[in-house]
């Protein structure tokens, strides 16, 4: 245990733990803080509490350089304190800052000149200045010279942390004269290029990175629903838009949710100049499960007593993260139709069945998550063997290249064979993407 670790990371979740490990791997002594005791127990036992490619190997390697604590106040022993706490959105269309406020209150009596607080969480515009003002108000610090406050947003996608941490430009928005410099010096240990800006520009850059993705995927989702209305094929229309067109770029449909995309737009809606525009984007993405259930009913009739296999619980391909996944909404909607729902996901820890069990005698198989394991000829063959003859396959991701959102399993088999994510009968529309 170092008397004064180089850096403290408070909140060892999906963002904080990989970051703490990366700092330790870069040779820094780190104190990691989390108030979830089970979570800490797993890390103390040398076990990653969730899946993040490469993280277990780093944990094995750096164990000794990562001290752990349940108490936020213990973070004051490090000069640099990084906050990676959750920032949900309240139903009032407002950021929920309770975890950040509570940790700041724990730290306040222990802060002294030279401390630097780096906000890594996603925050609404103005939050970094609020934190600086909070320290000035309660402790009388001059922020930027006595103590330092910066926003250093995390833009890495879960599942790609160790691939992107040393390459993705690291945006730094510091308050006052020297906060940006202090934050830049800490994050330079991770070797990514540092881009200095103002706090509010850093905040805007992060939330609009996610808003861009959320809106980008809402367009093909809306178009998929439009296409059903006109009996058109969404994958062919995507291809018509993009093929050899220099200003194309329409993406493919698919469930778009998860803990970040589903809430970060609300941080813009707090003070929007076009209130409702992004809420409409959210409504589009949120209505895809209902669209798929209604599409099933149009083709199969009442779902009461029909077996529907849902493949995938994670919100993102290749991960075990189920937070805010639309799969759960889909399952609830199917259950409200009195369907017999079977679920399979090879990544998550929630109880579920094997693929063979889930699809056995199914009347319909619904691809909720585009996990790579599902998008293989072997998985399609298993579905064809196990499900009822002529079972409906619902694949908004175009996992098998059959380019049909709704099709019978034998049709999917006949049409499959294009590159995954690309219409079989047309030029590729785009790669299947994790959301
Ligand atoms: N998950 C992602 O892919 C991702 C990507 C980019 C940005 N973000 C943003 O990063 C932030 C963190 O996200 P996350 O997914 O890691 O959240 P998370 O819920 O996985 O992690 C937060 C951690 O903070 C801990 N915590 C809460 N209150 C605490 C307290 N008082 N003291 C100590 N620990 C406390 C929780 O136990 C939890 O382990 C959010 O603002 C999120 O929007 C997340």
Quick tags:
435 residues; alpha/beta; Rossmann fold; 17 helices; 15 strands; 38% helix; binds nicotinamide-adenine-dinucleotide
Can you describe this structure?
The chain folds into 2 domains: 7-197, NAD(P)-binding Rossmann-like Domain (Rossmann fold); 212-415, Rossmann fold (3-Layer(aba) Sandwich), CATH 3.40.50.720. Helix 14 links the parallel strand 11 and strand 12 (340-344). Residues 421-431 have low confidence and may be disordered. The protein has 17 helices and 15 strands. The protein is α/β, with parallel strands linked by helices and 435 residues long. It binds nicotinamide-adenine-dinucleotide (NAD). The site of nicotinamide-adenine-dinucleotide has 26 residues, from helix 4.
What integer value in Å does the Rg equal?
24 Å
Q: Uncertain regions: pLDDT < 50 for 5+ in a row? A: 421-431
CATH superfamily of the largest domain: NAD(P)-binding Rossmann-like Domain
CATH architecture annotation of the largest domain: 3-Layer(aba) Sandwich
Q: Biggest sheet: strands, sense, closure? A: 8 strands, mixed
Structural class: alpha/beta
Rounded to the nearest angstrom, the distance between the terminal CA atoms is 39 Å
Name every ligand kind in the structure: nicotinamide-adenine-dinucleotide
Our estimate of the beta-strand percent is 5-15%
Number of extended strands:
15
Organism: Baekduia soli
Domain UDP-glucose/GDP-mannose dehydrogenase C-terminal: 309-402
Protein name: Nucleotide sugar dehydrogenase
Keywords: NAD, Oxidoreductase
């Amino acid at each position: 245990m170092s008397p004064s670790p180089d850096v403290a990371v408070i909140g060892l979740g999906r963002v904080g733990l990989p970051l703490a490990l990366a700092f330790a791997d870069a040779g820094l002594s780190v104190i990691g803080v989390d108030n979830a005791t089970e979570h800490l127990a797993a890390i103390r036992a040398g076990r990653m509490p969730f899946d993040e490619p490469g993280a277990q190997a780093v944990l094995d390697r750096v164990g000794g350089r990562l001290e752990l604590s349940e108490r936020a106040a213990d973070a004051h022993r490090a000069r640099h304190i990084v906050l990676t706490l959750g920032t949900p959105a309240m139903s009032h269309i407002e950021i929920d800052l309770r975890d950040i406020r509570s940790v700041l209150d724990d730290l306040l009596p222990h802060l002294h000149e030279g401390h630097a607080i780096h906000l890594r969480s996603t925050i609404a515009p103005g939050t970094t200045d609020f934190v600086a003002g909070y320290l000035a108000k309660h402790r009388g610090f001059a922020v930027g010279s006595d103590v330092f406050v910066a926003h250093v947003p995390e833009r890495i996608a879960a599942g790609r942390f160790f691939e992107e941490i040393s390459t993705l430009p690291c945006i730094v928005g510091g308050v006052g004269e020297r906060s940006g410099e202090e934050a830049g010096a800490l994050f330079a240990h991770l070797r990514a290029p540092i881009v200095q800006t103002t706090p509010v520009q850093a905040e805007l850059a992060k939330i609009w990175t996610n808003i861009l993705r959320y809106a980008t995927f809402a367009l093909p989702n809306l178009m998929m629903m439009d296409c059903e209305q006109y009996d058109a094929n969404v994958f062919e229309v995507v291809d018509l838009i993009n093929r050899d067109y220099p200003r194309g770029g329409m993406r493919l449909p698919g469930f778009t949710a998860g803990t970040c995309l589903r809430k970060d737009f609300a941080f813009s809606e707090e003070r929007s100049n076009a209130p409702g525009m992004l809420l409409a984007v959210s409504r589009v993405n949120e209505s895809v499960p209902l669209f798929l259930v209604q599409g099933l009913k149009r083709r199969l009739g009442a779902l009461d007593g029909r077996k529907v296999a849902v493949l995938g619980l994670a919100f993102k391909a290749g991960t075990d993260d189920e937070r805010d996944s639309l799969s759960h909404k889909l399952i609830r909607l199917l259950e409200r139709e009195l369907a017999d729902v079977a679920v399979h996901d090879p990544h998550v820890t929630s109880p579920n069945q094997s693929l063979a069990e889930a699809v056995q005698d199914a009347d319909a198989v619904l691809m909720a998550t585009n996990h790579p394991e599902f998008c293989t000829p072997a998985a399609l063959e298993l579905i064809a063997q196990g499900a009822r003859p002529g079972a409906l396959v619902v694949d908004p991701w175009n996992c098998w290249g059959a380019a049909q959102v709704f099709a019978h399993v034998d049709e999917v088999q006949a049409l499959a064979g294009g590159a995954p994510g690309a219409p079989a009968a047309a030029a590729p529309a785009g790669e299947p993407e994790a959301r």
